[in-house]
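Predict the structure of NADH-ubiquinone oxidoreductase chain 4.
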Amino acid sequence: MLGLIFVSLILFFMRDKKMGWYVKIWVLSVNFVLSLFHLQQSNWTFNLSESFLCWDSMSSVLVVLTFWISLMMFLASQASVKMAANKVNAFAFFLTSLNMILLLTFLSSSILFFYFLFEASLIPTLLLILGWGYQPERLQAGMYMMIYTVMASLPLLLTILWAASELKSSNMLVTPMMHNILNLKCWMWNILIFLVFTAFLVKLPMFSLHLWLPKAHVEAPVAGSMVLAAVLLKLGSYGILRCYQFFNFQIYSSSFFLLSLGLWGGMLTSMVCFRQIDLKSLIAYSSVGHMSLVLAGILSGTTWGWGGALALMLAHGFCSSALFSLANYLYEKSHTRSLYMSKGMLMLLPALSLWWFLFCILNMAAPPSINLLGEIMIFPSVIFSSSYLVPPLVMMSFLSALYSMYLFTCSQHGGSPKFVKPFSQINPTSFTLLFLHWIPANFLIFKSELVFLWY
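Done. Here is the predicted structure for NADH-ubiquinone oxidoreductase chain 4.
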């Protein structure tokens, strides 16, 4: 991993104005290939000063996803930023800095270091939205994102400082018997769970804490939407898993309350998808539904639930990133994101309609995607937790298929709008980008043992 960090630092400080864009694409590709060699690590390795950086197989999987999505962000922004000469150097700098912050976040073994990097990831994301967003409302969207995440993370910071002072260590690799050391009562543990998880539930996001996400997605450029959906939302679930290990949480009534709220809220957001007329807003609300399943798998407290959560995090990263890329291509051709106006694309560009179909069925967990693997593992773990959670689980599975078909039929079928000029070509880079999303989302099913290696 030292090689990955060193190469990422070189990428961060590179300032070549002429060839810097393409050099960074190649360096990210090399970093992605190097990170693949660490996927088989089953134990914590590489201690730097015993409390700084480390990785296991879960963090290695997310590091691979980070490099992959960073590479896809450069490819997706080729036309709107590079070819249009839209502040290219600043854009590349923010992307590489965000990639560096995310890499160090997933490799951090100190919970304090993890917290500060967790918050630092907001800054490049906010600057991407403000600098390359589409509409004047991007300032309000950035304000929503910052207020939600920063205010919710203050209780987490206080709890981390208190726990680190009690334990005389902030190393997440040490999993002490927290119940014996802190000696708290049951109601105190319930309050502690809320204090710790609030920041991560906002980032996840859980229903009732999700209002910032559709606003941020609608106003963000395509690269901002891709990294926000594919990687930044995973920081929430990754943080919950790490804090479960660090604080040695058990299943309390507050955990079951959050599990129930996440599932019933996920069902409601799936219904809200049918009321959306903005293409990116519909995909954003579908992300809330999928991440509520991830939350359910984590809070079930079972091995299958945690493995299914990791598989679903990967699947959602590839699928949502590709859907936002497709929405951006549709917007570039029709100059509108309205589902009422963007119709009949099947007659104008059937090749792109094929990719819409492939990723819509991937979004509804069709085989052989790892999305299906994650749901198969999460469903029994949640059902065995409580039989009262079966109705929202069944409805979420049904509604996800329904709004995926709704998304495809609204955008591809129907008469072509009169204001759209005929077009029959699209940049070959776009098809390469979509192909590179679809391949890992389906063929990682053959490496499904990765979700069990980190136990």
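The first helix runs from residue 2 to 13.
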